[in-house]
Amino acid sequence: MIVRHLADAEKTSRKIVSPDGNWDSTRLLLKEDNMGFSFHITTIYEGADFQMHYQNHLESVFCMSGEGEVESMIDGKKYPITPGTVYILDKHDKHTLRAFKEMKMACVFNPPLNGKEVHNSDGAYELDAETIA
To answer: Which of 48, 78, 83, 116 is buried most, with the most CB atoms less than 10 Å from its CB?
Structure first.
């Protein structure tokens, strides 16, 4: 059994702050935990507006608080995000995320992250060598 507390994890290297200042993410469950997915609590800061494209990962995102929108870069459709909204990037969807009020999100990634990833220039996380092998 794995038991962790968010407040404790936020004081460790499991908390990552984006270089661009748009978000921070506390990685509660990582690849090393051998669950086949990773689980994060991510804060998207108010005013953030950035594009992502997870070419190597599938992601599910559940909004716990805040307000914003996710825009599909395929068809331009915008979806409001409020507490209780889930959006699933099941086709490696290129998207733009906007936070009108700071958003607290619960995120699941498959394959799992190792914990140190930050977005590359395409808005994706790179796969580590062990995941590729």
So the answer is: 48
